[in-house]
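Long-time lurker, first post. I've been practising inverse folding by hand and with some scripts of my own, and I keep getting stuck on stretches where the structure tokens seem ambiguous. Below is the full token string for one chain I'm working on. Before anyone asks, I'm not after the true native sequence, just a reasonable design that respects the backbone. If someone could post their per-position residues I'd love to compare against what I wrote down in my notebook.
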């Protein structure tokens, strides 16, 4: 599934609050690991890394194979997807 914040509301803290809510809720539900997928560059990658997600795998040609048309970020076509993971069993300090 894809989730996003409307462009006019991005970089206002909404996405961070949503993600933190998901992290807290899943940790309370005793989920051990949270995974997300994103492009290999751009602000989305830094967004997840700031919340503790780490690169776990690369899915080559994901955006080429799974979307009807090309997707561009900052004028560069997305091709590969990074899978990032957050180990929820580790207490964050």
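-- Answer (accepted) --
I ran through it position by position. Result:
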């Amino acid at each position: 599934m894809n989730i996003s914040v409307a462009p006019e509301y991005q970089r206002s803290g909404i996405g961070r609050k949503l993600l933190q809510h998901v992290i807290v809720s899943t940790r309370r539900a005793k989920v051990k690991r949270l995974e997300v997928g994103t492009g290999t560059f751009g602000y989305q990658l830094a967004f997840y890394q700031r919340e503790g997600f780490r690169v776990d795998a690369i899915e080559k040609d994901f955006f080429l194979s799974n979307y009807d048309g090309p997707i561009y970020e900052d004028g560069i076509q997305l091709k590969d997807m990074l899978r990032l993971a957050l180990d929820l069993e580790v207490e964050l300090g």
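A couple of notes from the structure itself: The radius of gyration is 14 Å. The domain at 11-87 is CATH 3.40.630.30 (Aminopeptidase). Happy to go over any region you disagree with.
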